[in-house]
Design goal:
With about 325 residues, the chain is of the alpha+beta class. Helices cover about 35% and strands about 30% of the residues. The strands form two sheets. An eight-stranded antiparallel beta barrel has the order 2-4-3-10-7-9-8-5. It has a two-stranded antiparallel sheet with strand order 1-6. The longest helix has 15 residues.
Length: about 325
């Protein structure tokens, strides 16, 4: 069970993923040792991890949501193979283990071997669809509200970095930033000294470049966690078809729903994808019937229950164990 310190720590890391344990402890009113101990425990028992991610628009990246169907045995192997790739994130087994969903990052405007060659040659796949992400309404640097709500406004102000995202243009991500970003994707709290070793830069250069990338919004820090410990034991992907004239209105409304952690407009037979997290199937049913059912612009809705998250946002060095 999570107490107020655990929840406050998770909330604090969403505000500043690299905040020191001493700073978080001061805000929470506990000792530095307590925060460090809770962080280690949650990392070991609840897959807590801070990871740095590139903003797709600023990194000149496109995002594709690849949806595959296969036999249960093939699906398991394929999900793990996709998870091992550096260009994938959020690899999920859904629909009783016969469906895989993954987000694939590609250079904008370029073809991609995973989409064009690798997947069609894989035996056992019975269906493939790829959906281009046109706009993200909720997700990325926007945290799921289930991770928030513990710290009051004053505590949040104390933790917020002095220069927020998009405060200055900064230099865009370059090829030379690759080792830095790779290290931060494994552990966003890696020390400047360790990052200096990974990049071959001095600690001072690492600190300056990291501050530049973060303050300009070129990268952001995400928090991975076993959401079942926050009560989200029932997860589902919602494929929604909305009248184009009402798409922005509906997507904006959905982005305010506390049951959702991700909302994006996509190409394909449906034009909106959402990720729902609920405490029970009954609560998910109530949400689908009463909240989504009240939106007349929604024409069709397909619900795919999530069986397991094989890979979350960061690299595979520590796989998320979400149910």
């Amino acid at each position: 069970m999570l107490d107020g310190v655990d929840r406050g720590l998770i909330h604090a890391l969403h505000i500043d993923g690299r905040a020191s344990f001493a700073r978080i402890a001061e805000v929470l009113g506990v000792s530095t040792q307590t925060v460090a101990r809770r962080y280690r425990r949650l990392s070991a028992d609840a897959s807590l991890r801070v990871v740095a991610l590139a903003d797709p628009d600023r990194a000149d990246q496109a995002q594709w949501i690849v949806r595959l169907t296969a036999s249960p045995r093939t699906a398991q192997d394929l999900a793990h193979a996709l998870a091992r790739r550096r260009d994938t994130s959020w690899v999920k087994l859904a629909s009783g283990g016969t469906e895989i969903l993954a987000i694939v990052r590609t250079p904008t405007g370029a073809g991609h071997p995973l989409l064009l060659a690798d997947i069609p040659r894989t035996a056992g796949i019975t269906g493939v669809s790829a959906h281009y992400v046109l706009h993200t309404y909720l997700g990325g640097p926007t945290a799921w509200r289930g991770h928030l709500g513990t710290l009051d406004d004053g505590q949040q102000r104390q933790l917020r970095p002095p220069t927020g995202p998009l405060s200055r243009p900064g230099k865009p991500l370059a090829d030379s930033d690759g080792p830095l970003l790779a290290a931060l994707q494994r552990d966003g709290r890696t020390s400047h000294a360790e990052l200096a070793t990974a990049t071959g830069w001095s600690p001072a250069t690492v600190a300056r470049r990291l501050a530049d990338l973060q303050s300009s919004g070129a990268i952001f820090f995400d928090v991975e966690f076993n959401d079942a410990l926050l009560g989200a034991t029932t997860q589902a992907l919602l494929w929604v078809a909305v009248a184009p004239a009402h798409l922005d209105h509906v997507a904006t409304a959905l982005s305010q729903h506390p049951e959702l952690a991700y909302v994006a407009a996509t190409t394909g037979p449906t034009n909106l994808l959402a990720h729902a997290l609920c405490p029970t199937p009954a609560v998910l049913h109530d949400y689908l019937v009463h909240r989504l059912g009240a939106l007349e612009a929604i024409h069709t809705l397909e619900t795919a229950p999530v069986l397991r998250t094989v890979k979350a946002a960061g690299s595979l060095s520590t796989i998320s164990r979400r149910a």
